[in-house]
Amino acid sequence: MFDRITYITDSGANVRIKNEGEIVEDLMNLHVLFEDSEKKVVAEIENVNDNVIGTKFLGEVVNGKFVTGIIRKPGLNSKVRIINRDEFAMLVMQDSNDAIMLGYSPLYNDYPIRVNVNDIFSAHLAIFGNTGSGKSCGVASILQNLFNCPGFLPYNANFIIFDSTGEYKNAFSKINTIDPNYRYNLYSTSDEITDKAEKLRIPLWLLTVDDFALLLSATSPTQIPIIERMIQLVNIFQSPDINVEAYKDHLIAKAIMSILYSNETSAKKRDDIFSILTSCSTHNFSLETEVMGVGYSRKFRECFIIDSLGQFAESVLITKYVADFINDDFDRMVMTKTNYFTLEDLETALNFTLISEGWLKNDKTYGDAVTLKVRLHTLIIGGYSRFFKLDKFIDKTTYLHDLLFDNNGRKYQVVNFNLEDVDDSFAKVLAKIFSRIVFDFAKKLDQRASVPFNIILEEAHRYIQNDNDQFLLGYNIFDRISKEGRKYGVMLTLISQRPVEISDTVISQCSNFLIFKMNHPRDVEYIKKMVPNINSEIVDKQKVLQVGHCVGFGQAFKVPTIIRMKLPDPMPQSNSADVYARWTYSHQQAQQQQPVQQQQPSIQQQQFDNNTIY
């Protein structure tokens, strides 16, 4: 087929076809071998022009094994031929206990494409492609192949899926039929929980300052100290070892005393004190509390009657009463223990935070403080508060254990968080909170990376963005995991149809890529610029891929490889609507229908009515 080499460059060679006019369209993406007496060089056909093909050098065959990269170029007199099926085996992983099936090569008669388990799962993976190109099926197929791998039992695997559209609810539900040691657990954000799913719940006390900043949509660094103090106070208020009532009296007394000694008018002082007692009150401090004088008593609110001189008539009584509740020892108290609390407890703590530190007297921070109050109260009265309602205290280790093990101590290998019933902004917060909990747990293990986690983010562009986190907190949890997670055993798998919307930092840290067909020019150009080890040839390949085919490259692949993914079983719920089947209405059905005015609603109409939101 090939005549001779006509031209050699640093990266490839041009080869003339022996018989002009020979059909050569099927040569694209095949591999050729340049062979002489001293060396064998493997190259890939990347273009065909009339009777000349252009190739790109990939590596050499040394002692029967393929080695990426070349030092010496082939000579002009080297023999050129298409590699055979056995030689193609040098370019892909062979069958072994530490290899899993990824798919098949459509170019070499469906030769199995395998990858090393460590190479693919101990590094960050990115899967990009248009909607409908086969991404979700590819992910399901990879994991199903992993659990079907003979001679390898990944019992201790920890796959955590954040599923924004509910595609994977059933894809892994039957892994226990593969082996009774395998188990799958589904957490749902829906109120309608079946026996196939559990309710998603998050202990508030496991959240850090950064988590609350995200949950309350903080936008200014001045809100961080408010949140820190709020968490400190809520743990003090819930502590069984502290006289909480006396502590609250101390905070209110100090707040009132600071107002009494301010240079405001008496009317303004009264209004500010009444405002404090409206939001924060105790038995000893409320508008109706009885204050005892010498031979008489006054309600607390009556003590603030202003006389003709513009002063409080009972200023001496007020000052003495308030001062008796101030205990300087409380100011030196630091709570290190975490206690059980609810959102309502948190709101109480926030109210005391704002009076104890004087934030409401600071015009610069007043707006930020009120914003936090409004957002916390909105969360409490809103539907999302249900995710933070637990009946008892649970620590981080136990919480993660309960996520990964059932009541009988049997392990879940796949945990799926179905987030389709919450909006994108809240789903992003949930994903960040869980990822942070997992990452912190992994970092504190005595033996580093002894409990690996693989976090799979479906529609990753909804979660991993260039958010305000860097400005507000100094980091973004996904950026941090992408840079540090590998050494602690926390890996990310990104699945997205819009890579251009994903954080540049995260993509740059991915070691493996599966690129399905993509058409949008911005996404194609972005992949070309941002993805490491990619070139224009790989970009061109993905443009003509069929559904279910992808280009795989990175540390798990010796050479960029076109892969046909096997359809998973069960399938994820990612198919397009069967419009034809739903629209089709036979003539016989039409003739059997009653007149319009007498016709009963169809089953489809009833379903539509039942699901309509009025």
Number of strands: 21
Helix content: 25-40%
* Termini Cα gap: 70 Å
Let me know the largest β-sheet.
Answer: 10 strands, mixed
Described by the principal axes of the CA atoms, the overall outline is elongated
CATH top level of the largest domain is: Alpha Beta
- Count of helical regions: 21
| CATH architecture descriptor of the largest domain | 3-Layer(aba) Sandwich
CATH superfamily of the largest domain: P-loop containing nucleotide triphosphate hydrolases
Going across the major beta sheet, what is the strand order? 13-12-16-11-17-18-10-19-20-21
Unreliable parts: none
Average pLDDT rating: 88
Radius of gyration: 33 Å
The percent range for strand residues is: 15-25%
Briefly note the CATH topology name of the largest domain.
Rossmann fold
- SS-derived structural category: alpha/beta
Number of domains: 3
Q: How would you characterize the overall build of this protein?
A:
The protein is an alpha/beta fold. Helices cover 34% and strands 19% of the residues. It has three domains: 2-91, Thrombin, subunit H, CATH 2.40.10; 99-199 and 395-564, Rossmann fold (3-Layer(aba) Sandwich); 209-386, no CATH class. The chain has 21 helices and 21 strands. The strands form four sheets. Strands 13-12-16-11-17-18-10-19-20-21 form a ten-stranded mixed β-sheet, sandwiched between helices. Strands 1, 2, 3, 4, 5, 6 and 7 form a seven-stranded antiparallel β-sheet that branches. Helix 5 packs across helix 6 (223-237), helix 7 runs antiparallel to helix 8 and helix 10 packs antiparallel against helix 11. It is elongated. It starts with a strand and ends with a helix. The model has no long low-confidence stretch (mean pLDDT 88).
